[in-house]
Amino acid sequence: MSEHEEGMTLVSHLGELRRRLVAVLVVLLLGLIGGLFISDPIYQYLTAYGPLPGIELHALTLWDGLGMYMKIALIFSLVITLPFTAYQIWKFVSPGLKPSEQKATVRYIPFVFLLFLLGIAFSYKILLPMATSFTSSINQNLGLVETYGMAQYFTFMFNLILPVSLLFELPVVVMFLTKLRILNPLRLRKMRRISYFALVFIAVFVTPPDFISDILVTIPLILLYEFSVFLSSVVYRKQLEEAEEYESRYVKVDAGEKI
């Protein structure tokens, strides 16, 4: 391939990447607009059935109410856009995959959405109540009057929920990268100590500073990693079987023809 053809190929790839990024941004914007219409019901639910039901929130600045609506709308838009983004990534890399790999990887897209929702449920139902209970007990022991600002309360909530929800995408990401032959179970096992350290650090960072909370969050994250290694092994084993089948079917035939 000439330098001119390589340059044209690079330009076409960059153009396709730009089109797909624009499509993702358009869907994100539409989701943001739609999220503004349902921000109030979501806000009412989070305050009525959250870890501190009946909590009285205060606006400390004139922008707190609008900022809260925008944050809820943004989270809603991210949830809606996530599977579409995964599909656009698949469309961008699929020309370099075999037909069988294309069919296999497109099946991951629904699980991107489901695992993200599972991460939200875990962090909202388990992690957030632990964090608020711990911090509230500290405040009560110090004899403090708990007066919560709206912006601070929802920032605290989203800063806990979003990182954990994204970590729940780990199995799908590992399977996808294994399909692309970027990762394999051997490499993941070699990285186990570093990965465990990173997961423990994340768990300690997003949880209250007590041992029980750290353990309750670290264990699911480590199980997620080990599950990802198992899924990578399944994908990698199929790749080896396909390679062996290809060699037995075509390489031996070519050798026979040469003889």
Automatic annotation (TrEMBL):
Transmembrane stretches, start-end: 21-46, 66-87, 108-131, 151-174, 194-212, 218-236
Lineage, opening ranks: Bacteria, Bacillati, Bacillota, Bacilli, Bacillales
PROSITE patterns xrefs: TATC
Family statement: Belongs to the TatC family.
Name assigned to this protein: Sec-independent protein translocase protein TatC
InterPro entries membership: Sec-indep_translocase_CS, TatC
Originating species: Paenibacillus gallinarum
PANTHER family reported for this sequence: SEC-INDEPENDENT PROTEIN TRANSLOCASE PROTEIN TATC, SEC-INDEPENDENT PROTEIN TRANSLOCASE PROTEIN TATCD
Primary location class: membrane
Subunit structure: Forms a complex with TatA.
Keywords of this entry: Cell membrane, Membrane, Protein transport, Translocation, Transmembrane, Transmembrane helix, Transport
Organism domain of life: Bacteria
